[in-house]
Design brief:
- The chain has 17 helices and 15 strands.
- It has helices at 10-20, 28-34, 60-63, 72-84, 97-109, 123-140, 161-166, 170-173, 191-194, 200-218, 244-255, 276-280, 307-315, 329-344, 347-365, 402-413, 435-458; strands at 39-43, 46-49, 54-57, 114-120, 148-152, 183-186, 223-228, 258-262, 286-289, 301-306, 372-378, 381-386, 416-417, 419-421, 424-427.
- It is globular.
- The N and C termini lie far apart (52 Å).
- The protein binds 4'-deoxy-4'-aminopyridoxal-5'-phosphate.
- Belongs to the class-III pyridoxal-phosphate-dependent aminotransferase family.
Length: 462
């Protein structure tokens, strides 16, 4: 077989891809007919594809390439660590410097007494760890019946059996008999889509109190934890009304329910603070981390655990759980270097003081567009809701996602990566994005919206 390289014609690469590569969250037959887009290079906020297009990546890959593409320091660190110690495990009373140094750094950065890290290879794995950890914790405290974990409909916590069960994605639950037992769900704080005639504040309180109702329904002695994303990401960048999180915190405190903040997207600067929990003013017992921990350069995730939970678990003997790649030295070294750069280059200050304010002004202005209802932005994660009638916060009559999908196709055609979730368009660009690049993002987004508007009007969808 000839070598498969970037220099091969796109059609040949696509044919090979279709023949042998099964893509995540993809209709394989449909993709095979169309051919996958082949990305060949990345630099800063820019991607290049096999046709030579220069694409602005408004999604930082999958919300992960926070430092942008092509950082030499991270490549150097990986190469150096591979030469020195490419792998060793952290089972059997063994450790190594990258795992130690990264855990200490994460403990320094994480708020409060979140001082202990259990490593995983991804966000999904880390959430599976969390399921086992919180059940083990309550058993160690003499409450073995506290096993149920409450998540939210339209939450996303990964694709493993555990992660997908904690999440509340109905399309995922429809396949393969999910959720697994011992997981319950409450509604999401999405006022735009579900708030009806209520004020956002009242709606936020109502959705928070569903947690209390669920705890009372199941019995306080059966509920181990509540898991939620500080800002829902894959669900469409849903920002809870201001009343929501204080009430959730009150309920978790009152009933002694562990609060797990899934910071896989919101961690490491995305919301303008190190962690989304700080932006939302919550005090979780456990945080799930991945993605921005290494800026996506290598796979790594983990759970940051508070002193009390860590001490209780430590006192209970062996926690029978772990992954071959827990604390992988190359991943840990790259993550540590990524955190060093985030800190020394003041990237989070850049998000808070420069990129967010600049993008916020231009993003909010998109709400003037005839297709756009609300425009939301927290730090550098944003969404716009597409609607045929702003005043009524109406949905398109066509199958959910059709208009969003069409808008995303226009974005692709205009060399912008913007994702759609149903009829919401979402962005999460690299945190290092500069004002002039934000201008390009907005110009391409507006052009794509204009084209979508014209096309759906012509098709009689408005
Ligand atoms: N939690 C959240 C909040 C996520 O957004 C994701 C991934 N999008 C995950 C967990 C799962 O992470 P991974 O894909 O690394 O398993």
């Amino acid at each position: 077989m000839t070598a498969i390289t970037n220099h091969m014609p796109t059609a040949e690469l696509q044919a090979l891809d279709a023949a042998h590569h099964l893509h995540p969250f993809t209709d394989t037959a449909a993709l095979a007919r169309k051919g996958a887009r082949v990305i060949t290079q990345g630099e800063g906020v820019w991607l290049t594809d096999s046709e030579g297009h220069r694409i602005l990546d408004g999604m930082a890959g999958l919300w992960c390439v926070n430092l942008g593409y092509g950082r030499e320091e991270l490549a150097e660190t990986a190469a150096r660590q591979m030469r020195e110690l490419c792998y060793y495990n952290t089972f059997f009373q063994t450790t190594h410097v990258p795992a130690i140094a990264l855990a200490a750094k994460i403990a320094e950065l994480a708020p409060g007494d979140l001082n202990h890290v259990f490593y995983a290879g991804s966000g999904s794995e880390a959430n599976d760890t969390n399921i086992r950890l919180v059940r083990h914790y309550w058993a160690a405290r003499g409450k073995p019946d506290k096993t149920v974990i409450i998540g939210r409909r339209n939450g996303y916590h990964g694709s493993t059996m555990g992660g997908a069960s904690l999440g509340g994605m109905s399309a995922m639950h429809r396949q393969g008999g999910l959720p697994i037992p011992g997981i319950a769900h409450i509604g999401q704080p999405d006022w735009w889509s579900e708030g009806g005639e209520m004020t956002p504040g009242d709606f936020g309180l109502m959705r928070a109190r569903e947690l209390e109702a669920k705890i009372l329904e199941l019995g306080e002695d059966r509920v181990a934890a509540f898991i939620a994303e500080p800002v829902q990401g894959a669900g469409g960048v849903i920002v809870a009304p201001e009343t929501y999180w204080p009430e959730v915190q009150r309920i978790c405190d009152k009933y002694e329910i562990l609060l797990i903040a899934d910071e896989v997207i919101t961690g490491f600067g995305r919301t303008g603070n190190w962690f989304g929990s700080q932006t939302m003013g919550i005090r979780p017992h456990i945080m799930t981390i991945a993605k921005g921990l290494s800026s996506g350069y290598v796979p790594i995730g983990g759970s940051i655990v508070c002193d009390e939970v860590a001490a209780t678990v430590a006192a209970a003997g062996e926690f029978a759980h772990g992954y071959t790649y827990s604390g992988h030295p190359v991943a840990a070294a790259v993550a540590l270097e990524n955190l060093r750069i985030l800190q020394e280059d003041g990237v989070i200050d850049h998000v808070r003081d420069v990129a967010h304010p600049y993008l916020a002004e231009r993003w909010q202005a998109l709400a003037d567009h005839p297709l756009v209802g609300e425009a939301k932005l927290v730090g550098l994660m944003g969404s716009i809701a597409l609607t045929p009638d702003k005043a009524k916060r109406a949905r398109f009559a066509s199958e959910a996602g059709t208009v969003g999908l069409r808008a995303r196709e226009r974005c692709f055609a205009n060399d912008l990566v913007m994702r759609h979730v149903g009829d919401r368009m979402i962005i999460a660009p690299p945190l290092v994005i500069r004002p002039e690049e934000i201008d390009v993002l907005i110009d391409r987004a507006r052009k794509s919206l204009d084209e979508t508007y014209a096309a759906i009007k012509a098709d009689g969808l408005l």
